[in-house]
Design a protein that fits this description.
Distance between the termini: 40 Å
Strand content: over 45%
Radius of gyration: 14 Å
Oligomer: single chain
Helix content: under 10%
Number of strands: 11
Order of helices and strands: EEEEEEEEEEE
């Protein structure tokens, strides 16, 4: 089974920065994409950013220009560099890892989440 573990969350003041990490493990992995989602208080889980196998990235409009997703392919680890944090960024951040199936489909794997709190 694929395990996904997030880390790096914490408390930060508005305008500050955090870097989240997402480590995937579980034997031989063929990862199609890794991404970040978040769920704020009283809100639904929403897309934040994703990075594909070829390095292509996609971002939610709400974080463009402030967040940067990257991936260390050798470590099966993705990162989310969060700069210029706002109170609205407060949420539990979840990592999603998509792995290829033998027939070309994808399996989704989710981490347990890491709390990010932006407050003064």
């Amino acid at each position: 089974q694929v395990q996904v573990v997030e880390s790096g969350g914490g408390l930060v003041q508005p305008g500050g920065s955090l870097r989240l990490s997402c480590a995937a493990s579980g034997g031989v992995l063929s990862i199609a994409a890794m991404g970040w989602y978040r769920q704020g208080p009283g809100k639904e889980r929403e897309f934040v950013a994703t990075v594909g196998r070829g390095g292509s990235t996609d971002y939610s409009d709400s974080v463009k220009g402030r967040f940067t997703i990257s991936r260390d392919y050798g470590k099966n680890t993705a990162y989310l560099q969060m700069d210029s944090l706002k109170s609205a960024d407060t949420a539990v951040y979840y990592c999603r890892v998509d792995t290829w199936t033998v027939n070309g489909g994808r399996n989704e794997h989710w981490g347990q989440g890491t709390q990010v709190t932006v407050s003064s």
